[in-house]
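Summary for the steering committee. One of the milestones for this cycle was to obtain a three-dimensional model of the protein with protoporphyrin IX containing FE bound, which we needed before selecting residues for the alanine scan. The sequence and ligand used are listed below.
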Amino acid sequence: MTSRPLAHNSTSKWLHWSVGTIAIIMLVFGSGLDSLPIDQRQQIIMGHSGLGTLVLLLMVIRWRWRLKNLPPGPTSNMKRWQILASNWMHWSLYSLLLAQPIFGILQAMYITEYEIVAFGLINYSDLATDNQAKAQIFHILHGVNATVLSILVLIHIFAAFYHHLIQKDDVLRRMLPLGKVRKNDIS
Ligand code: HEM
């Protein structure tokens, strides 16, 4: 059996906190975008699409990294349903965080109202012919995926604090940059 580490390695911690921070900022400030005037929207989307592209890049790296580097195992106090729920949660977050920028890029390629140039560098509008119907489909998928992602992120944060404050185990500590973990807290 492959032995599990006691804590996440520093690359996993960097990937976790950078993707988490950018994704939460984008989920919070993404909603309400479509009520802004077109010129303001175009300016904001220039940054939004650039940061989203960065999330896609980091998620591809993260997925590959996760397949090659086992995370720490469940802590000794975790029940079977908690272990199953946490596995399901982590793979769902990985999938939704990959799907979110992909739907965004597809929407950007087909959008008809304005041109989308990520960070002023990558012109997504040039990649396909404008198509209102396809843009609408990917707009809906991008919005629905964002809603489900927001709910799962909230549950994920709640679970981390539940482990730390109620179960008093090392689950949150082992993901913190300077977190200290106990050797006997793993099952
Ligand atoms: C993790 C990455 C991303 C997150 C969390 C995110 C989040 C959001 C959210 C919450 C909305 C509002 C949805 C709605 O209210 O219907 C939105 C809209 C949008 N996003 Fe993203 N997004 C991401 C990546 C991207 C990428 C990579 C692109 C394009 C390259 C993109 C392009 C857009 C566009 C064009 C809109 C609609 C703006 C409009 O209504 O005119 N997004 N995004």
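Key point for the committee: The chain has one domain: 10-177.
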